[in-house]
Amino acid sequence: MTQLTEFRKSKDQFFRYDHHSPLTHEQQHHFEGLNYFPENPELRKTVTVDVFPEKEEVTIQTSTGDVQTYQRYGRFEFTVDGQTAALTVYSSGEDYFLPFVDGLAGKETYGAGRYLDPVSLGKDKFLIDFNYAYNPYCAYNERWSCPMTPAENRISVSVRAGEKNYKN
Q1: Which parts of the chain register pLDDT below 70?
Q2: What is the pLDDT of residue 24?
Q3: Which residue in 135, 161, 145, 166 sits closest to 39, CA to CA?
């Protein structure tokens, strides 16, 4: 069993049984597991982020109309199926946040986008593993407040990795 397979199994267990699950009690009762794309090693990338000289503070609206504050950290380019795209990484303290909407949004994936937690490797290098792309909790029920994906992170390429649409 791969590390990703174990991670997904553990996540499904959390969603089904944990009282901190984003699912309602009724959803948990009928939950059979999340839907995922097959693991794609090509979408596990080590990238160099072009760090912005000034960390501009931005407010990002949430799904409930609130706002959350982040800093624009830097931008990186990557290639998927021969197509080049670029995304901005945001930071909040020592954590990094990568919301994105790709060409599959609203079809095979959640329409408002998915999230990634980039792993800093030091010296402006990051591990970006799209196989771990996940839906925000507001994809499961509306009681959650989730940051909306900024326009600069809406790309036309299709990223066939990570979570698909949730079907309850």
Answers
A1: 1, 168
A2: 92
A3: 161
Contacts of 1 (CB under 8 A, 6+ apart): 9
Phi-psi group of 65: left, alpha or beta (phi > 0 → left; psi -120 to 50 → alpha; rest → beta): left
161 backbone dihedrals φ, ψ, rounded to 5°: -155, 155
The pLDDT of residue 49 is 96
| CA–CA distance, 1 with 119 (Å, rounded to integer) | 22
pTM, to two decimals: 0.93
Number of H helices, E strands in the chain: 2, 9
β 67-80/50-51 pair status: antiparallel
3-class DSSP state of 138? helix
Task: Delimit the domains of the chain by residue range.
Answer: 37-153
